[in-house]
Amino acid sequence: MPDLCHDQNVNNDATSPSRTAGSQTLARGLAILRLVTEAADGLSPAEVAAAADVHRTVAYRILNTLCDAQMLHRGSDGRYRGAAGLLPLAAAGHQHLRTTGLPLLREAADELGITVSLLVREANIAVALAVVSPRHGTYHVAFSEGSHHPITQGAAGLALQAAEPERATDSEQIRAVRELGYAQTFGQVEENMHGLAVPLVLGAGQPFACLNAITVREQQAADSAKTLQRIAAELTRLVHI
Q1: How far apart are CA 208 and CA 150, in angstroms?
Q2: Which of 75, 147, 198, 206 could form a disulfide with 228 if both were Cys (CB 3.0 to 4.6 A apart)?
Q3: What sign for the dihedral angle of Cα 227, 229, 232, 236?
Q4: At how many degrees (to 10) do helices 45-52 and 56-68 cross?
């Protein structure tokens, strides 16, 4: 049986119409997927068409394909939002970092009695790569892996910006996070929630990342700083082994 990847009858010219058309369709699909998932309340087909600069028919076709793949779903309001099919992809991303971090997150969550997460920066979005809730205690805050919010919001957003190399244009707030070693905010991502996040400086080839604790108690968030900093140092060490 011939190897189709090397069959001489296959046109391997990168500029052939079929390859160009396929690449363009894929690029549009990925762009639309990103547009929809980054929108706080999803997007309508008309909004997708306008934002992606495509005809509405093309937008519908791509949206329906993404729905068939369970990457998006169409709500009763006609707006498209991220679907459960994105979660395995989020879990697969940065797999080494996630796998290495999970036992340490469990340790921190149980020690602190609050939910602890590992977030990475994807473009201008903070994405939860791993989320661990404490195994003991009467209640805790919970959210899903793959959850995301702009890096301009919350303790995690500040910590992710502080994990980047220093720039002359850095705000005083980002510089303060680097000096303190953590960021603390209230109600910026979720109402009435206190967050504390520690930057992870993982080095070349690794994403900008942070550890984040979230709770309804301000003092509990503040008290998590030393534990998260210890866990961050251990995770950084293990990632480079």
Answers
A1: 14
A2: 198
A3: negative
A4: 110
The CATH 1.10.10.10 domain(s) of the chain lie at 4-83
Return the amino acid letter for 134. P
Does CATH place domain 4-83 in 1.10.10.10?
yes
Cβ proximity of 193 and 221 under 8 Å: no
Dig out the tokens for 13 from the structure.
């010219």
Q: Do 200 and 152 meet the contact criterion of CB atoms below 8 Å apart?
A: no
For the four alpha carbons of 50, 53, 55 and 58, in that order, the dihedral sign comes to negative
**88-239: what fold?**
Beta-Lactamase (3.30.450)
Query: Are 106 and 117 spatial neighbours (Cβ–Cβ below 8 Å)?
Result: no
Residue 166 DSSP label: P
Q: Is the dihedral of CA 106, 111, 115, 121 positive or negative?
A: negative
pLDDT in tens, the chain (241 residues): 333 333 333 344 444 555 555 688 899 999 999 899 878 788 999 999 999 999 999 999 999 999 999 889 998 999 999 887 776 776 565 888 989 999 999 999 999 999 999 999 887 888 888 999 998 866 677 777 888 888 889 999 999 999 999 999 999 999 999 999 999 999 888 888 899 999 998 877 788 999 999 998 999 999 999 999 999 999 999 988 7
C-alpha span between 160 and 69 (Å, rounded): 31
- Distance (Å, whole) CA 216 – CA 190: 10
